[in-house]
Amino acid sequence: MRVRLPGLVNRGPATEITIQRLDGSDPAVAAWVTVQEACRLSDEPDPARPSAARVRGDLEHPWPGTRVEHWLARHGEHTVGVLALGFPQTDNTDVTVIRELSVHTDHRRRGIGAKLWRHAVDQSRGCRALPAACRDDPAAAPAASPGEQLVTAMGARPVREETHGWQEDTLVLPAHRGHRLGLRIKIDNLLQVRTYEPALRLVDTWNADANSHLIAINEALGYRPVSRHSEWELQLEGER
Q1: Which of 94, 101, 96, 91 is nearest to 121 (CA)?
Q2: Which of 72, 148, 70 is nearest to 107 (CA)?
Q3: What is the mean pLDDT of each run of 10 residues along the chain (240 residues)?
Q4: Strand order in the sheet with 18-21
Q5: CB neighbour list of residue 236: distance below 8 Å, 6 or more residues apart
Q6: What does the alpha-carbon distance between residue 156 and residue 196 come to, in Å, rounded to a whole number?
Q7: Rounded distance between C-alpha atoms, residue 237 and residue 57, angstroms
Q8: C-alpha distance from residue 237 to each of 1, 3, 30, 148, 229 (Å)
Q9: For strand 66-75 and strand 18-21, is the pairing parallel, antiparallel, or unpaired?
Q10: CA–CA dist 106, 81 (Å, integer)
Q11: Residue 155's closest CA among 24, 87, 64?
Q12: How many C-beta atoms lie closer than 10 Å to residue 136's C-beta?
């Protein structure tokens, strides 16, 4: 399927910007978080707040098997937009994921988002697709089936404690499904994070709406829906 992008819808004159890599310095990370905060308050007013620790964690400890790039859109001394790209390195290597493309609310409708989009496409040449996530007692974790053992691996922790966390993928091999391993993993993860991150008060997770099994697990653990997101995919012209 081919996607034709609409023309620009400008409310003001186009803004001249430069696009530069996020270097990890404190001022650059703070500028990134400022853009995120403005966008979240306008677009998705949720208890989850952006943090420098999360940005640094993504820079220093990206998702396994993924190369990440973070870009800032600058207008003079101001950071007006951010772009985060993910490049799978082990499988689906023909895909680039736009993990975030945000424009500060004070600078929208001036072509900045379109320029960041084009930059994402330029960085993705060589890829073919461009995709743009009754309460149980957590202490009563179900026992694993015979021959199955739960092992915990700890990654690097943030420099300072956070009150909001994100629980990402929960995966069980098809041959081992139906043994309540998904429930056990999620319960043990919550118990571990309460031990190592005592300041944590909220945890976000996500599911595909077709994944009824994990949705049921999350509901049993007390999670509640707070937002719905769509994912779009563009087949790049000339890439097969």
Answers
A1: 96
A2: 72
A3: 44 85 95 94 77 89 90 96 94 91 95 95 80 43 53 54 81 88 91 88 90 92 89 74
A4: 18-21, 66-75, 78-88, 97-103
A5: 121, 124, 125, 127, 128, 129, 130
A6: 11
A7: 34
A8: 10, 9, 36, 47, 26
A9: antiparallel
A10: 10
A11: 64
A12: 14
- The owner of tokens 């007692």 is 137
Q: What is the token pair recorded at 136?
A: 């149980």
Q: What integer pLDDT is reported at residue 30 of this predicted model?
A: 96
Q: Is 27 exposed, middle or buried (0-12, 13-18, 19+ CB in 10 A)?
A: exposed
Q: What is the Cα Rg of the chain in Å?
A: 20
CB 162 within 8 A of CB 54: yes
Helix (H, G, I), strand (E, B) or coil at 72: strand
Q: What backbone phi and psi angles, to 5 degrees, belong to 154?
A: -100, 130
Rounded CA gap, 135 and 224, in Å?
A: 11
| Paired tokens of 219 | 């509901």
Q: Is the entire prediction scored with pTM above 0.70?
A: yes
Neighbouring residues of 149: CB distance < 8 A, sequence distance ≥ 6:
none
Q: What is residue 78's three-state secondary structure? A: strand
Is the Cβ–Cβ distance between 86 and 99 less than 8 Å? Answer: yes
pLDDT at 38: 94
Q: What's the CA gap between 141 and 155, in Å, rounded?
A: 23
pLDDT of residue 238: 62
